[in-house]
C-alpha cells in the first residue's frame, strides 16, 4: 500500500509516461542516463530502440482481455503478448512496495512500486524452459540458479549439509514481452516436500536495475537473518564490501512473503549503517502490468537527485534530471540539493564517460 502520501503506480503513471515519451526522443541520452545511473549497464542502441517502439505502440496491459492496439498479428511481440495473456491467472502475482530510507550522510526516503510473480522451478537446469506468466517470461538466464539441484548444491556449499528439497518456488520480476525486466530482489523458497505449504529455508538474489542477476544470499532456515557482503554495485553510491543484514518475514500463515528487509552498513558489526531497504509483498489479481523500463527510468532519475546531495560531479543535463526527479516523483523525505558524501559513497559515476 502507498504510504505517507505516496501515489500508487496507476496514479503516477501519466507523468512518467509523458517523461518517457520525451526521453525516448533521444536514444543516445537514454543510454547515457542508464549507463551513468547503474554501474555496469551497457544498453545497446537496438535494445533502447526496441523499448521505445514497444512503449509507443502499446495500449499497454490495461488488463486481462483488453486488446493491445497497434500490434500486428505478424509481429514477433504479438506472440509474447499472446503467451502472457494465456498465462493470466496461472500464477500468484504480487504488488511490491519498495522503500529506500537513507539516514547518512543525509536523510532521504522514498517508495517505489513494482511487481513480482511466483513460479515453481524444475528439478535440474537441463529441464529448465521459459515460464510464461501474466507479467512476462521468467527465464533461467535471468537467474544465478534455476533448479532444485542448483539450490541444494548451493546450500551444501554454504552450510556443509545437503538439505532435503522437493520443491523450489521463485518470486521474481518477469521479462515483460521477453524484452525488459526490473527485479532488484528475487526470493527462492525451498520446500522439504513438494506439497508443503511452509518453506524450510530461503535465498534472496540481488540484481541490477537492468534485470541482470548479481549475488545470492543464503539463509539456513526461514527464521534466520542473512549477514553477508553486498558483493556488487546497484547504484554508484554503493560499495562492494558493504555489509547486508537481511530478513524475510512471512505472513501469519507462513505461506506468503510479507516483507524482505535489508539494513546496509559499511562495517560487519553494523557500524556506519546508512540505509534501510524493504520490499513488502501483497498478493493481487492480474491487472495492469507496470512497464519495467518505467521503473528503470524512475530509479535512474532518483539516482541523479541523490547524486546532487552526495556532491557527485554532474553535467548540466544530469543536474536537470535530478530536478525532474524532485518535481515528478513523490518523496517522503527529499534529499538536499547539495552536500557531500562524507565517506558513505564512492560516487563511482564520476569515473564514467558523460
TrEMBL record:
UniProt xrefs under InterPro entries: DUF1365
Spans annotated as Disordered: 56-84
Alphabetical list of Pfam families matching this protein: DUF1365
Protein name: Uncharacterized protein
Organism, as annotated: Enhygromyxa salina
Amino acid at each position: 500500500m502507498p504510504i505517507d502520501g505516496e501515489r500508487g503506480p496507476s496514479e503516477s503513471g501519466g507523468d512518467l509516461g509523458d517523461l518517457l515519451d520525451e526521453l525516448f526522443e533521444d536514444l543516445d541520452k537514454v543510454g547515457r542516463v542508464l549507463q551513468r545511473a547503474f554501474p555496469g549497464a551497457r544498453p545497446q542502441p537496438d535494445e533502447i530502440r526496441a523499448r521505445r517502439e514497444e512503449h509507443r505502440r502499446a495500449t499497454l496491459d490495461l488488463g486481462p482481455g483488453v486488446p493491445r492496439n497497434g500490434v500486428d498479428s505478424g509481429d514477433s511481440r504479438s506472440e509474447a503478448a499472446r503467451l502472457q495473456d494465456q498465462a493470466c491467472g496461472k500464477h500468484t502475482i504480487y504488488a511490491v512496495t519498495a522503500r529506500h530510507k537513507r539516514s547518512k550522510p543525509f536523510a532521504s526516503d522514498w517508495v517505489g512500486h513494482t511487481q513480482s510473480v511466483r513460479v515453481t522451478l524444475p528439478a535440474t537446469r537441463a529441464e529448465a524452459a521459459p515460464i510464461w506468466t501474466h507479467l512476462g517470461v521468467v527465464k533461467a538466464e535471468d537467474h544465478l540458479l534455476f533448479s532444485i539441484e542448483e539450490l541444494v548444491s548451493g546450500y551444501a556449499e554454504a552450510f556443509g549439509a545437503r538439505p532435503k528439497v522437493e520443491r523450489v518456488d521463485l518470486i521474481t520480476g518477469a521479462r515483460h514481452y521477453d524484452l525488459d525486466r526490473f527485479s532488484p530482489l528475487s526470493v527462492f523458497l525451498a520446500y522439504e516436500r513438494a506439497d508443503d505449504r511452509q518453506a524450510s529455508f530461503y535465498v534472496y538474489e540481488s540484481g541490477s536495475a537492468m534485470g541482470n542477476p548479481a549475488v545470492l544470499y543464503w539463509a539456513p532456515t526461514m527464521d534466520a537473518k542473512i549477514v553477508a557482503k553486498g558483493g556488487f554495485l546497484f547504484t554508484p553510491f554503493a560499495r562492494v564490501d558493504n555489509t547486508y543484514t537481511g530478513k524475510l518475514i512471512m505472513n501469519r500463515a507462513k505461506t506468503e512473503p510479507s516483507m524482505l528487509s535489508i539494513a546496509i552498513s559499511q562495517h560487519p558489526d553494523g557500524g556506519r549503517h546508512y540505509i534501510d531497504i524493504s520490499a513488502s509483498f501483497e498478493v493481487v489479481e492480474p491487472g495492469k502490468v507496470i512497464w519495467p523500463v518505467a521503473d528503470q527510468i524512475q530509479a535512474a532519475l532518483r539516482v541523479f537527485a541523490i547524486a546532487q546531495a552526495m556532491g557527485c560531479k554532474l553535467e548540466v543535463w544530469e543536474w536537470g534530471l535530478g530536478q525532474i526527479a524532485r518535481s515528478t516523483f513523490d518523496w517522503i523525505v527529499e534529499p538536499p540539493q547539495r552536500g557531500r558524501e562524507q565517506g558513505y559513497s564512492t560516487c563511482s559515476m564520476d569515473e564514467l564517460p558523460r
